[in-house]
């Protein structure tokens, strides 16, 4: 089994030339920002234009029959665009798409006559007749005129809205990714690192989306891939992540990056391509990534989130919308998804320095907004009320102005008036989400999502038909233990029903082993969903837990069996070959043909199970008997003594090992006489990792476990975790301070 990798930004101790250049560019840009910010934050050009810029009458002057004709175009799929340009190539394509209606929202600078295919063109005069409350406060000469188009489409019966611009040329069908496709969930592993650069997943960690917090661009950010819907039974799908209600498609050639990127890396513009083979992803609740209004699908249950704020600048409004919407998605069991590039962006002419000035609020406040949203709460269980509550809280913190509070109240009323049904609210609970994420890591799930992503990027990079794919970056982090063991099942056996050790045990090992199953006797009712019941004679046949795990979960790449009081040297184990047995090779064999003299160390002499087992001709195959005889040098029955507080069995031999141990259970063969014997019967010891085992039997030694965790040592036993919080914390601290060799 090969180690898995995540594709996130990371630093080596020696920074690359590209990284130094990138940081220098950001440093210079921020210097300009601080020198200009005081002026621009108070400049009338910083905010969107007000309606007083144009003396436009608010009276309805459009004949009823003219507006009624436009209302005849109804349908479920709508595209919403605002433009000040004559029809572009992109608009010619959009306006002629089958199964899609298009509404174009005009502004005072838009052409008076605008015709393109079957598009509905809402003139300024048309808009004044729509009786939407928001039209009274949305400024002219502003991108946020789009809000009127959203309401129009909803009023006409939309169930899906595609939010885009007149310079985005679709290169594929416009559709939501089916839940049955390979949509995987992408989350940060640490709650304090909430921002996710999804461009990294699609092969370009050197590029970041507009609105991504600048102070987090080059933070080493471990991420996890959770399974796709397709890989899970129906009852488990809700645990992976809520359904995608908003889907951002990436854009090739000239994607939506910020002005700092454009001003410092202009040579890359119009040539950027992402990996189209990478599977679509969704963000788990608690994670953020900015998304824009340029290539985005909204399902019906997310229509409330189309509202663009009016008190921030043009280059900020859709990003701010994207952030606050993500927070409220968590409250309705919804998620944000990202999919491969679906448009080629042929960007209209931009003044990059003007864009930079327009984006100042993004640079200074994005990180603060993410932190604010992650911690925001409201007691209301009505989504419309929660929207207004959030706008009020954002205005209080100066992320938006009071005008957006008024706008949000009007927006909620308008949605109700056009017949929109708000989805139900289930209040987001951070701990509940983390618990559900943990729940899907149970042994019922075996995910290869990391591998899927890694292979996709390799395929893109190797595409010789497109030389631009050579720039795809596959950042191979040093393998983390959780990646190395992502397809290993940790089987934990409790000899006694002392289950207070569960919490400290999981605290220590869950960060390293995503798949853990526990077995023990006399399981109390409140733990029956956590510990599986087994009767194993106080651990004398403890390997019964391993047999049960292999039977119930047969498709893992390996099985690591251990007892609850055994300390695993996780970072040492991470260096071992996952295709070999991990076990100290036994050194003591005893001839069972003559029991007249008890041998030295006769601790097992009164356990007749092996005699009965050897007398049973079905216990071994002929080849297995030959392997045992070769190891012991005894041409007949023999005991093989071997401690068995932990053992690793590779998946390729797990079925045979399980069968041998199952036959041993018929005769109650003692654990430390059975496991070593079974492994020798199945696998020659030259294919073993002969780890060292340290045992702390005597007074005082158990507190000195650190002294025994030396290179080459696989396990230390026993280390009691029962209610010993200090021991648990010491072990966690030690493990976090050690790196994989």
Protein model, in words:
The chain has about 750 residues and is of the alpha/beta class. The chain has three domains: about 15-45 and about 165-470, no CATH class; about 50-165, 3-Layer(aba) Sandwich (Rossmann fold), CATH 3.40.50; about 480-585 and about 620-630 and about 645-740, Alpha-Beta Complex (Spore Coat Polysaccharide Biosynthesis Protein SpsA, Chain A), CATH 3.90.550. It is about 35% helix and about 15% strand. It is built from 25 helices and 23 strands. Strands 1, 2, 3, 4, 5, 6, 7, 8, 9, 10 and 11 form an eleven-stranded mixed beta sheet that branches. A five-stranded mixed beta sheet has the order 14-13-12-15-20, with helices on one face. Helix 24 (about 705-710) links the parallel strand 22 and strand 23. Helix 9 (about 315-330) packs parallel to helix 11 (about 360-375) and helix 18 packs across helix 22 (about 650-665). The longest helix has 26 residues, at about 15-40. The model is unreliable at about 1-20, about 30-45, about 50-55 and about 440-445 (pLDDT under 50).
Give a short summary of the structure.
This protein is of the alpha/beta class and 741 residues long. The chain is built from 25 helices and 23 strands.
Rg of Cα set: 32 Å
What's the total number of strands? 23
State the secondary-structure class.
alpha/beta
Helical coverage, percent range: 25-40%
Give me the number of helical elements.
25
User: What best-fitting shape do the alpha-carbon axes yield?
Assistant: elongated
- Low-pLDDT residue spans: 1-18, 32-47, 49-54, 439-447
Mean pLDDT, rounded to whole units?
A: 81
| Whole-number total of structural domains | 3
Strand content: 5-15%
Give the termini distance in whole angstroms.
Answer: 17 Å
**What kind of sheet is the major sheet?**
11 strands, mixed
